[in-house]
Structure formats: C-alpha cells, structure tokens
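Listing S7. Sequence submitted for prediction.
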Amino acid sequence: MKSKINPLKVQAWVIGIGTLLMAIKFIAHLITQSNAILSDALESIINVMAGCFAFYSLWLSKKPKDSNHPYGHGKIEFISAGFEGGMIIIAALFILFEAIHSFIEPPGVKNLDIGICLVAVSGLINYILGFYLIKHGKMHHSDAMKADGKHLQTDTYTSIGLVAGLVLVYYTKLLWLDAVIAMLMGLLILTTGYGLIRKSLAGLMDEADTDVIAGLLPVFNENRKDNWIDLHNLRLVKYGSNFHIDAHVTLPWFYTLQQSHEEVTAIERLASEKFHEDIELFIHADPCLPFSCSICQLINCAERKHPFVKRLEWTMENTLKNEKHRA
C-alpha cells in the first residue's frame, strides 16, 4: 500500500539535509587537509546533484499521459538513475586521481580527531536518509527514489571505511594510508555507479522485471476462476511507478464477446486491487482448443472433448511462453 506522504516532499527534505552534510564534509576537509575526507565530500556533491535530478524525475513522472506520451512520463526515472550512476563514476575517477596525486605530493594531514567525528555523524545521517528513501521508493514503486537511497547508503558504507582508516592513520601516523583509503573508496564508488547505470539501461531496454512478475502470479493463482483456463505470453513494462502488462488469457470458445469482456475486466480489477493500483493491463482473450480440456476446471461443460487431468499452476516458466498450455 502506498504511503500517504508525498514522495516529492520526501525527496526535497533529503536534498536539503544532503546539502547541509556536504557543507560539513568540506569543513572537515579544510580542517584536516585529508584527501580521504575530500573524496567523501566530493561524493556529497554528487548526492545533492543526483537528489535534485531525482526530484525533477519524480515530478515529471507524475504528470498525466498526453498525446505525445501515451504511456506517461515514468521512463524519466530510469534516466535519473543512469544520470546518478554517471555522476558517481565521474566522482570516483576524480577521487582516484587525487589519491594518486597525494602519493607524489603528500598533504599535511592534521586535526584528524575532529574530522573523524564529523564524517561519522554525516555517515550515520546519510544511512538514515537512505533507508527512508528506499522505504518510500518501494511504497511508491519509484526507481529514482530507490536509486538515490541506495546511493546514500553506499555513501555510509564508504564513510565507515573512511572512519576506520582515519583512526588507523591517527594512531599510526602513517600519512600515506590516507591516499590508500581514498583509492579504495574511489574503487568502491566506481562499482556503485556501474550498478546504477546497469539498472537504468535494463529499464530503458524494457528488460523483464522477474521480481514483479513473481509477485503478480500468486495473486492470479489464488484468485483465478474456473473459466480462466490458461494464461500465457505474459509481458511487463515499467514506466516509473506504473506497470503495463500484456497477456493472453484462454477462455471457453463459446463465450460471447460480452462474457469475454467481463472476464478480462475481472482479471484487470484483480491485478489493480490485490497487487498494485497503478497497473494497466492489455489482455487478449484466446478461445480454448480441444487440448485445453485437460487443464479446464469448468464443471459440466457441454463442449468438453477430453477429461480434466490437472489444474495448471501459473508459473514464471509457463506464463512467459507464447503458447497455449496442456496437461
């Protein structure tokens, strides 16, 4: 069920707090002159920029369909996730460059105790923000919010490693470890950026979302009618928080057009009420064939040609195929 909290307000709060955390990290860098802390501060710039783009994508994805966008504007959320991934990769490359440069000209790291405290507090707040974003992203089926939340939580993980490394530098006085920590953080951030771009491309290329389909099939199986003989050629496309599903359902061949329409409408209503309210189905009704009798549960069917054999459970394997099923 969706949260009553407006996702745009959630995202706006995240941007505001993220801007404050970014300022704190840059202050920590000025105090300590640590390249590792600078790398964390630079990633915070990406956090704020990505948060702003996510806000825009959420606003645009909520706009109603129009003549130029008959499926809505939800695809912008995939572009947002890809943009965020690209910005993360740029930040990671800059962090690696700075870390390598510090090996050549080591900075005079100082006041690490203050820097450690500031980074630790910022990391904790980022984790809470990330958890909050992911939670509401799942409620609203928003890839932009979930991507931004995962980014913030990744920032927390890097902050944990950063704090641990800075504590080591503080007690060992081995200043070159600061550059090593920055390089490790850069590599970790690089993998996060790649993951977001990969997910963005998957959405733009309409890659099958098996998790969503796996969640929908139990709803159909538990609530199906006896005259819903078969379900096949099931396909799903996601546009932001909206799902568009195409499917073929096999109904008794002797049904009138009105009867078939009523059954198709019942399936659409079931998916909307039990699974996700922002779902649009395009269902093609197929007439049953003689071999369909083996999986047809209609009792006392006057047109039955073969005996009933078994109830066919609709699974990921058999519903995605474009073919009628038999026992």
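Caption to Listing S7: primary sequence and predicted structure tokens for the chain studied. The domain at 210-319 is CATH 3.30.70.1350 (Alpha-Beta Plaits). The chain has a mean pLDDT of 80.
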